[in-house]
Amino acid sequence: MIGLKVYAIVPVKGATGKSRLSTVLDREKRKKLVLLMLDDVIHSLKESRFLSGIIVVSPDDEILHFSKKYSCITVKEPPMGLGLNSAVKLGVNMATAMGATAVLIVHADIPLINESDIDYIIREGHKMKAPFIIIVPSRDGGTSILMLSLPSAFTFKYGEESFKRHLAEAKRLGLTVKVLQCERASLDLDDANDIALILNSNLEKKTIKFLRSIMK
Q: What is the CATH number of domain 6-214?
């Protein structure tokens, strides 16, 4: 699509993350789950017609090696990580250096998304006048996907109630704002309740197949 050069940014804390799932999954199963969710997200991004590239940001060498197999650009954080907001900023800096005019920030724990969701968001971005932001909220008040035109002085506010805080930051900067609802993107897998919701899906995702195999 002519007009915007869009790079996806996928921040990933590490292959042994998701500690809130420790009551139902041991360390090795959580590690496998993180990699499979990332696999599902990258696959959907790769299928999109409108992305110039995918940037994965992580302090975890296994995550970065895994991502390179899918021809993703990788950015290494320090071993202990920088926190989500700083990790996203690293990705934005890389995208800017590669000539991006917009970024699509996608979390690695929303495995139900597909390429049609990605294409829909990017098409909406092409209709907007820069500087702009598109926010796809999660069901718990967070931000699942964020599309931002570049260059931008936007300060990322990921964390609790990030949806409201991102809206406030966009208002502060005078950005054109669009909020898009996406059921598949709104479900991020953080705890046992989320597993139950994801298992209700009939989508053919590696994450779902794995969870079904271990939750019997």
A: 3.90.550.10
